[in-house]
Amino acid sequence: MTKPPRTPSKPLLGDVDAPIRSRARRRRDPAQPQLILDPMPERIEPCLALLKPRPPKGPQWTYEVKWDGYRLAVHIEPSGVRILTRGGHDWTDRFPAIAAEAKRLPVSTAILDGEAVVLDAYGRSDFGMLQQSLGGRGGKRSSRDAIFMAFDLLYFDGHDLTGTELASRRHLLEGLVPPGREDAIRLSEEIDADGETLLRIACEHDLEGIIAKDRNSTYRGGRIGDWLKIKCVQSDGFLIVGYEKSTASFGGIGRLLLAARKGNELVYVGGVGTGFNERSASELREQMDKLKIGKPAVDTGRKRNAVLVEPKLVAEIEYRAWTHDGKLRHASYKGLRDAADEAAVYDLE
């Protein structure tokens, strides 16, 4: 015999339309630890590469191409993206393509370390092209040609990675920015090769040089030797202390007069009269003419048609060697470093 239906029971919580909620068994102890997440730093002091004449030996060293551009940190935060220069200046608006690509990366929070570059037709980074895309030194133009070559990951989804060894940081970076990307953010790939062989190949392809990194090192700010740079051609920053006029040269600049630091003093190290084009010379002349002075900042000897300027502009100069009397040999002008980049001025030992 069929049993009669049971009387419907009351809904679980009485009111069918009421949300289902649970009740804590007891109040949470305020002293109980929360999930461990590291606070995201406003800025991390960048690790800088120490210049060496030859690549290091040993299995702990890994190698990358040396990129010639502006060192940047890309901060991906809940509120948006920030792009900071080496000196901590906010240049987010100057790299819109990089900022837009950072928003598309599959991560909630991160800090990527890398270099903004513009590549030439052969895939080599060209500092002059990068500067022109930004409107020259002191310019305010945004560059849509610049791409970001990411080579380290310092913060990832709530975790500070600066105390983690490089090999693990690179593993996470390659998951976030896979090799072979052709977007505005790309991976600066590690190259498994003998350092001497890689340097020779880099120089044959007219690259600036290579970077060697200790794969067991943590991330520490400053120039401490965990990262090394080995250059094909010497390139350093020198202060412009004047120029010689010339009616036959671009911008009327016959030669720039350059100085290096020696302790608290400046020392004249010769001049450079090549590497200019019409545009770069015109922009440089405009910058220098705002800084004219009557008394020399350093003794340059007797120079014909010399215009003296305050030593405030840092020129990136490529050179092959030094003469016996301490002057640059086979020097060529590459461009002006921006103040926000905090470029180092060559220090004479």
Automatic annotation (TrEMBL):
Q: Does the keyword Ligase apply?
A: yes
Q: Which reaction does it catalyse?
A: ATP + (deoxyribonucleotide)n-3'-hydroxyl + 5'-phospho-(deoxyribonucleotide)m = (deoxyribonucleotide)n+m + AMP + diphosphate
Gene Ontology terms for molecular function: ATP binding; DNA ligase (ATP) activity
Name of one Pfam family that matches: DNA_ligase_A_M
Q: Keyword Ligase on this protein?
A: yes
- Which residue range or ranges hold the ATP-dependent DNA ligase family profile domain? 148-255
Q: What class of enzyme is it?
A: ligase
The organism's place on the tree of life at top rank: Bacteria
Q: Which UniProt keywords apply?
A: Ligase
Q: What biological processes does GO assign it?
A: DNA recombination; DNA repair
Q: Please list where the region (Disordered) is annotated.
A: 1-34
Give the EC number(s) listed in the UniProt record: 6.5.1.1
Q: Which family does it belong to?
A: Belongs to the ATP-dependent DNA ligase family.
Name listed for the protein in its UniProt record:
DNA ligase (ATP)
